[in-house]
UniProtKB/TrEMBL annotation:
It comes from Cutibacterium granulosum DSM 20700. Its main location: membrane. The chain crosses the membrane at residues 51-74, 104-122, 237-258, 270-293, 322-345. It is a multi-pass membrane protein. One of its GO terms (cellular component) is cytochrome complex. Keywords: Cell membrane, Electron transport, Heme, Iron, Membrane, Metal-binding, Transmembrane, Transmembrane helix, Transport. This is Cytochrome BD ubiquinol oxidase subunit I. One of its GO terms (molecular function) is oxidoreductase activity, acting on diphenols and related substances as donors, oxygen as acceptor. GO terms for biological process: aerobic electron transport chain. It is found in: Cell membrane. Belongs to the cytochrome ubiquinol oxidase subunit 1 family.
């Protein structure tokens, strides 16, 4: 676990640098971007919030997995009977174990969800400062606004809203900690970036690397006919599915704890079986949508404000090579996923291991013991 978290530090630091390229500058002699301050990379505000957010969501999956499996076994063993009504020694031990595991998993899920929500709120505020176009796309805000979108419908071409449900002023609080304050809209930012041919933060500032590349961005944007806004629909819905699925998982964890209050145990019904099965998948799929939003919301950039995606294509790699690699990875990892799922379900159905003691006296190879 520690090794995985250390690995996550460097992976997320690199990804956060692509979102907000700090600690680097352009070297005109070599014609490339060069790292000048590794400490700035690790101190990147995007990285600091992203690391906590990502680790917390991982614990959400772990807690949901433990809670879901344990709750299913508990409903199968207890069959809805109150804990005080169970007298068989074996059943008492099984019920006690599965109750403890369910509560542990549910509390981990809920606590991790709370940390995820707090770190996500901080992330949103940093995103407003450093990637204003990404925040505008996440809220489907084509024009500057302070209203939070519960649901928004557009014309389909990513230029105009045709209707929706809004909460007045709430977006200003979520984005800027100030109720009623506005965020810049997609069309406003499009006009600014096209006219200036430079990427700036919400306050007009830039990182050193972004400022170094500002003079060459006009050529890159013109040559590739780049739209400086991401896919608004994809950003908007992936952002909401990420939040909604995470909240649904935490809510199920809370329902589990409520069902176990006062020694009560669940029955094994079709409804219980269904939502205990889907519980681990809710945060997992939510995280997947979160990464879709993270990577697609920063488009059209590979490195925000420095390197457009269209300019990052390797000229020596053909479309056929990319297709072959994609198919190969899909087949290999798909096969591994099938094997892993089979082994996982087999282990899950087996339940608790048999830890009954054996008579060592009948075993000629039993270890010697002292007697007094």
């Amino acid at each position: 676990a520690i090794g995985t978290m250390v690995s996550a530090v460097f992976i997320l630091a690199a990804n956060s640098w692509m979102q907000n390229p700090v600690g680097a500058t352009f070297n005109p002699q070599t014609g490339r971007a060069e790292l000048t301050d590794f400490g700035a990379v690790l101190g990147n505000p995007v990285f600091l919030t992203t690391f906590l957010h990502t680790i917390a969501t991982s614990y959400m999956i772990g807690g949901a997995l433990i809670a879901g499996i344990s709750f299913w076994h508990l409903s199968k063993v207890a069959r809805g009977r109150h804990t005080s009504e169970i007298s068989d020694a074996g059943e008492v031990e099984d019920v006690s174990t599965w109750r403890w595991a369910t509560k542990f998993g549910a509390w981990v899920l809920i606590a991790a969800a709370a940390i995820t929500a707090v770190s996500g709120d901080i992330q949103g505020k940093e995103m407003t400062k450093l990637q204003p176009m990404k925040m505008a796309a996440a809220e489907a805000a084509w024009e500057s606004t302070s209203d939070f979108s519960v649901i928004t419908f557009d014309t389909g071409d990513g230029t105009e809203e045709i209707g929706g449900i809004k909460i007045p002023g709430m977006l200003g609080f979520l984005a800027n900690n100030e109720w009623g304050s506005q965020i810049q809209g997609v069309n406003d930012l499009r006009k600014h970036d096209v006219n200036a041919y430079t990427y700036t933060h919400n306050d007009g500032s830039q990182t050193e690397l972004q400022a170094s590349y500002a003079s060459v961005l006009r050529e890159k944007v013109d040559a590739n006919n780049i739209d400086l806004a991401p896919s608004v629909g994809l950003s908007y819905w992936s952002f909401r599915l990420m939040i909604g699925l995470g909240m649904a998982g935490a809510l199920i964890g809370l329902i589990m704890l409520i069902e176990l209050r006062g020694g009560r145990n669940p029955r094994q019904t079709g409804w219980h079986n269904f939502w205990t099965f889907v519980t681990p998948f809710l945060p997992l799929i939510g995280i997947s949508f979160g990464w879709i939003f993270t990577e697609m919301g920063r488009q059209p950039w590979i490195v925000t404000g420095v390197l457009p995606t269209a300019s990052a294509v390797s000229p020596g790699v053909s479309a056929g090579s990319v297709l072959f690699s994609t198919i190969a990875y899909t087949v290999v990892y798909g096969a591994l996923a099938v094997v892993e799922l089979f082994l996982f379900l087999k282990t899950m159905r087996a339940g608790l291991p048999d830890v009954s003691t054996t008579d060592n006296a009948a075993d000629g190879d039993a270890p010697l013991s002292f007697a007094y």
